[in-house]
Amino acid sequence: MPGIRSATRRALTAALALPLLAAALTACGYGSQAPKQEQAAFAPEGEQLSAGEVRVGYFPNLTHATALVGVEKGLIQKELGGTRLAATTFNAGPSAVEALNAGSVDIGFLGPSPSVNGYTRSHGGNLRIIGGAASGGVKLVVDPDVIRTPADVRGKRIATPQKGNTQDVALIHWIGEQGWSVDPESGKGDVSVVRSNNKVTPGAFRTGSIDGAWVPEPTASQLVALGGEVLLDEAALWPDGKFVITNIVVSQRFLAEHPDVVEAVLRGTVRTNDWIDSHPDQAKAAANRALERLSGKPLPSAVLDAAWPSIKVTDDPLAGTLRTQAAWAADAGLLADPELDGIYDLRPLNAVLAAEGRPAVGDAGLGAR
After folding, report:
1. Residues 275 and 298 in one domain
2. Which among 121, 51, 123 has a CA at the least distance from the CA of 93?
3. Are residues 249 and 301 both part of a single domain?
4. Residues 6+ apart with CB under 8 A from 310
5. 291 belongs to a structural domain
């Protein structure tokens, strides 16, 4: 595979490859596609809660496995009884935050950077993090023909999904730890940081217009299938290998008006995570069925099998790691003075966990009062 891709690279000059990438980014860039409203797979059944409907948004991405499986298997709808679950999928955090702000989505699954950005830019007025969903599943995958060690990354072109997103912040922080510098706005410096939609990145890697990418699953395993090699699993940089990659957030208005619905959704996500942990093969298949329904095609078995084990579902939002990620973004100049006090309200989740006989999870001192 590497030899095939190297031959392709030699056949395409940079003058051709980079305009192709730019055109693809224009067509498929983050936020360029409208959100997709799903049809309810399971009908409401039983007593209605305080709202007739709850609108939940998430990404068609393996790091959102809790939502993929919970919706696909009807595990969240079951806890809602007669309240209908209306699901919407997004391609990027900013559009999901906009939907929360506009009131078109009530509860969302978001990465840490959009969660922090949405909270700080509204001066703490629009959302709360109410639970965790996933940890891990992020890797630096490189072309082994040109990058064999971390030192070889200097002078190369490395893609991230979007300026200021969670992986972009992590890469820029890592670059700084190597003693190198990069301008966070332009991406230019000792490493060229190329902001590229995850749908575009595999093609850019195949043609050689990028030399690697710091990306979540399944994009990382797609690059491996194209001949890339994992240079670094981001989990290795964190204590105990755990760091938040997906949060569950809610609009503050919906939380205030419909706490019973919020608690029911969280009960559904907790039970979904239990089911995923106890039925890993069935859960993997369910997630892929959901991806096929949402995108029109499933992930190839080789990609799915490689990607799935590195993603760990979790009810714990791992609040201490979000604080660290926000500090990295501020240090990089991508976030101004992150004031995170009150970003969490874990009381509904801890009520659910207590009913299940489980210990409470913490908010790292950043909880609403």
Report:
1. yes
2. 121
3. yes
4. 136, 137, 139, 217, 233, 235
5. yes
Domain span holding position 142: 2-31+138-240
Same domain for 81 and 183, yes or no, is no
Burial grade of 279 (CB within 10 A; 0-12, 13-18, 19 or more): middle
Chain segment 147-196, per-residue pLDDT in tens = 999 999 999 999 999 898 889 999 999 999 999 999 999 999 999 999 99
In a domain, 290, yes or no: yes
pTM for this prediction: 0.87
CB 322 within 8 A of CB 316: no
From residue 286, how far is each of 72, 81, 165, 217, 353 by CA, in Å?
7, 22, 27, 16, 25
Residue-wise pLDDT tens digits, 212-232? 999 999 999 999 999 999 999
d(CA 241, CA 338): 24
Q: What contacts 167, CB < 8 A, 6 or more positions away?
A: 138, 160, 161, 214, 215, 216
Quote the DSSP letter at residue 367. Answer: B
User: Token pair of 262, please?
Assistant: 């919020």
Angle of helix 319-331 versus helix 166-177 axis, rounded to 10 = 70
* Domains of the chain: total: 2
Select from 223, 240, 257 the last residue of a domain. Answer: 240
